[in-house]
Amino acid sequence: MADVSKDAVINALRKVDDPDLKRDLVSLNMIKDVVIEKNNVSVTVELTTPACPLKNKIEQDCINAVKSEVKGVENVKINMTAKVTSHNDSKKNSILPGVKNTIAVASGKGGVGKSTVAVNLAVALAKDGAKVGLIDADIYGPSIPLMMGLTEKPKIYQDQETQKMLPLENYGIKLMSIGFLIDDNQAVIWRGPMASGAVKQFMSDVNWGELDYLIFDLPPGTGDIQLTLVQTIPLTGAVIVTTPQEVSLIDAKKGLKMFERVNVPVFGIIENMSYFIAPDTGKRYEIFGNGGGAKLAESLGTNFLGGIPIDPRIREGGDKGVPMVYDLPDTKESELIMEISRKLAAQVSINNLNTASPKVEILLGDEN
Ligand SMILES: Nc1ncnc2c1ncn2[C@@H]1O[C@H](COP(=O)(O)OP(=O)(O)O)[C@@H](O)[C@H]1O
Ligand SMILES: [Mg+2]
Predict the structure, then answer these.
(1) E strands present in the chain
(2) Are residues 118 and 183 both part of a single domain?
(3) Same domain flag for 127 and 273
(4) Most Cβ neighbours (<10 Å): which of 51, 208, 260, 301?
(5) In this structure, what are the phi and psi dihedrals at residue 128, rounded to the nearest 5 degrees?
(6) Do 341 and 225 belong to one domain?
(7) Domain membership of residue 58 as a residue range
(8) Both 135 and 179 in a single domain?
């Protein structure tokens, strides 16, 4: 029997699409290695994020394609790896050279669970293997240090002529908070330039190292301060957190319009406090109404990334500084948050592919 050829395997893989990126794995340059030993084929696939929602489907599709298209193949082994794609923006590259993507978590109004969502998304992405940082830029209520179980101040060190800060770290997340810059008892009246100055300092004077995703918890609302911030931070995109009731949805829409105005893509809407499942009866209560977030996303032409129920354990996780997805990973609620984080990561990858300069297909070298 003729040997299995590498070309035949690659041609088979041309028929496998990345369902999010809507192109085949070969032209996306995601096939990194093909090794053939007799009738056994081993393929290395490099995804655009370790938080890929369709990892298992892609793996199975590759196995099926090679087995059905290439004669003589007995076993197919797929090694799934990932390298997060970078938002290519000159401002971001100069201010945050080691950071591939920046994501704002925003809301039209306070108290909708924006910080809770930001923290859990960050931890979810890190659990999938991404390098994640978090900047608490909410001047009205910097609550992320507590939610992340961090109370100390960041360390300052001398880097040649300038002073630099090291971010704090917990659950695999690097963190800076605007709360570190102010005394607990000191009342601060923030203005736009002050807030943007502080956030600029977090971007340029903090040693972030290499990060796949740097998440910003923005102050709620759509006023001058928020507008200044979204113009200061070189954003890959934003997500908007809302609760299902009308008053919150109206403000979420304003949030989306603000990002549109400054040409920052909105990756989608997350509906928090979507419903409540009574632990004793399992009955679902739609306390703030039903489906508002999804309807809003549809009417605004953006994605609905998912809903998170009201769950006392989510609140407790925030209060005790151990995010739900870290503390109780095997719950339905944590699974929902993981799914949302993967949909978000997929949107970042789609954005980076669509905004990349056109690339010619790079063919596999002979050896890897
Ligand atoms: N899905 C949820 N289930 C239960 N409690 C929640 C949920 N989301 C947020 N909370 C709680 O609601 C309060 C407000 O959330 P927070 O994240 O601080 O809101 P924001 O940052 O939008 O002001 C916090 O006490 C938080 O623990
Ligand atoms: Mg908050």
Answers:
(1) 17-18, 23-24, 31-37, 40-47, 75-82, 99-106, 132-136, 155-159, 162-166, 168-170, 173-177, 211-217, 237-242, 266-277, 284-285, 304-310
(2) yes
(3) yes
(4) 51
(5) -80, -5
(6) yes
(7) 6-82
(8) yes
Of the pLDDT bands very low, low, confident and very high (cuts 50, 70, 90), residue 3 is: confident
pLDDT tens-digit map of 23-77? 999 999 999 999 999 999 999 999 999 999 999 999 999 999 999 999 999 999 9
| Mean of all residue pLDDT scores within the chain | 93
Give residue 106 CA to ligand 2 midpoint distance, Å: 10
pLDDT confidence of residue 64: 97
Cβ of residue 192 lying under 6 Å from some atom of ligand 1 = no
Q: How many residues does the chain have?
A: 368
With a 6 A CB cut-off, is 104 part of the ligand 1 pocket?
A: no
pLDDT, tens digit (0-9, with 9 covering 90-100), for 241-300: 999 999 899 999 999 999 999 999 999 999 999 999 999 999 999 988 889 999 999 999
Question: How high is the pLDDT of residue 85?
Answer: 97
102 and 175 share a domain?
yes
List, as ranges, residues with CB under 5 A of the ion ligand 2: 115, 138, 143
Q: Are residues 143 and 268 in the same domain?
A: yes
The CA 311 to ligand 1 mean position distance, Å, reads 10
Q: Which two tokens stand for residue 212?
A: 């796949």
